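Re: that chain you flagged

S.,

Sorry for the slow reply, it's been a week of failed gels. I finally had a moment to sit down with the sequence you sent. For the record, here it is as I used it:
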Amino acid sequence: MRHSSLVLYRERVLNNINKIKSMLYPHQKIISIVKADGYGVGAKNITSILKENGINFFGVATIYEAINLREIAPDADILVLSPLLENEIKLYLENNIITTITDIKRASIINRMAYSQNKVVRAHVKVDTGMGRLGVLFYDAKVFIKSLLEFKNIRLDGIFTHFPSADIKDDFTLEQINIFKTLIEDLKKDGVTFSCIHSANSGGIVFYNDPFFNFVRPGLMIYGGYSSNLVKNSIELKTSIKWSSKVLDIKKIKKGTSISYGRTFVAPRDMTIGIVGVGYADGFLSLNSNKGFFYINGGKAKILGRVCMDYTVVDITGIDAEIGSEVIICDDIDGIRINDISDRSGLIPYEVLTSISCNIKKSVL
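Prediction finished late last night. Pasting the structure tokens below so you have them in one place:
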């Protein structure tokens, strides 16, 4: 284990979930996105909190993340948002995981293997309406989906698309929604329906939530981050974590002393510095070098020089600190919230969270 550690607060997560629910229509349900180790806060920890509060549908990026969740969510619906690889099909069948389908070739392989085991695979179809990434292109989607109906061992439970710019409010997202709704209505006329229809990510929930859809997919908002300033101005969330470490050493330095690799900081005066047990190996990336501060006993300890692999040097002149003092890196406190760190460092808020190492201790309070 590393010197830094993370606490996930139930109360803060529930605050964020309740804020999200307040923006939904009565018939809409939540698919909580807990990929990338629960956006860095611990996938099992966040999933447990959500399950305790009535959410039982989760989205992840890989089958291996899904299997990890199965240990604590044996009865949950778990959707892998990425298309599968052929050598992973057995894992979907063994663990009752919902797969994403984007092409006929893999659908045929899935169907054949499911048939050989007398099983039915649940699946969602991903449609590319403008993200330009995964999914069958919307103008091919109707023919594609109808062809999937020939596979008797695949059950098409859902259909979804993804927005690239819903958090900045633009006509492009409205165009995507219209394209997607038209496709679904056309399929419905031909007798093809889905029990789960979803498109809205965090930004989409705030600005483009449409009652046509019966599920939404919040991610970053669950954890208390904002994908844009527009979103930040539209919903009040709580940073769900406290990420902290300890002061490992203290020393007094003279004016002119340089700090850390590259000598990017030179002391303008005599100073007292603290060496904190957090670095880029913990997920506190080097883009934070010479930017921002930590809280130590209520004082703002400015970051000095380059962030190292295991350490960050801070100015503790005038701060009541000693070896072993707690250092707060990220919390629901002014200046060190997720988006504060993002704004200073140039990282996107997703990176602030998902960079947090799986090797640090993570707990729930």
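What I noticed first: Residues 241-331 form a domain with the Lyase, Ornithine Decarboxylase; Chain A, domain 1 fold (CATH 2.40.37.10).

Talk soon,
D.
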